[in-house]
């Protein structure tokens, strides 16, 4: 299993070339329900859509239904333990609440996070979070 960052879900759905070939292969060979998405990701995508920063090509609700309806993808609920963990991440982690919840979700589940976010990748290099670079 692997948790994917918000931008990775967007890249997957748009078939963006920013998603590296190794990352794409890993996702393509995942089993049913093995690609996890944090419950904060739909909120983050809806917010980007609302601000006009994300051209989805269709209504955001339909886009999310299509994305989250894929058999390999499973939405992870925001449990209280994840909420608490997001406020107590070890080391130095930036203040973006969505990123904190996504990182806390991966830590809580004990699975890697697929991301291309340089700050999160650097955090992973410090040993606080298992990360996989989505650009590779």
UniProtKB/TrEMBL annotation:
<dbReference type="Pfam" id="PF01850">
    <property type="entry name" value="PIN"/>
</dbReference>
<protein>
    <submittedName>
        <fullName>Type II toxin-antitoxin system VapC family toxin</fullName>
    </submittedName>
</protein>
<feature type="domain" description="PIN">
    <location>
        <begin position="2"/>
        <end position="122"/>
    </location>
</feature>
<dbReference type="InterPro" id="IPR052919">
    <property type="entry name" value="TA_system_RNase"/>
</dbReference>
<dbReference type="InterPro" id="IPR041705">
    <property type="entry name" value="PIN_Sll0205"/>
</dbReference>
<dbReference type="InterPro" id="IPR002716">
    <property type="entry name" value="PIN_dom"/>
</dbReference>
<dbReference type="InterPro" id="IPR029060">
    <property type="entry name" value="PIN-like_dom_sf"/>
</dbReference>
């Amino acid at each position: 299993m692997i948790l994917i960052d918000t931008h990775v879900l967007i890249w997957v759905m748009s078939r963006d070339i920013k998603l590296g070939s190794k990352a794409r292969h890993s996702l393509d060979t995942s089993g049913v329900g093995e690609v996890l998405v944090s419950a904060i990701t739909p909120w983050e995508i809806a917010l980007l859509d609302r601000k006009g920063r994300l051209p989805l090509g269709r209504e955001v609700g339909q886009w999310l239904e299509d994305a989250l309806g894929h058999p390999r993808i499973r939405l992870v609920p925001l449990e209280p333990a994840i909420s608490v963990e997001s406020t107590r991440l070890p080391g130095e982690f930036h203040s973006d609440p969505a990123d904190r919840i996504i990182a806390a979700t991966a830590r809580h589940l004990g699975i890697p996070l697929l991301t291309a976010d340089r700050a999160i990748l650097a955090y992973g290099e410090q040993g606080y979070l298992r990360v996989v670079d989505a650009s590779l």
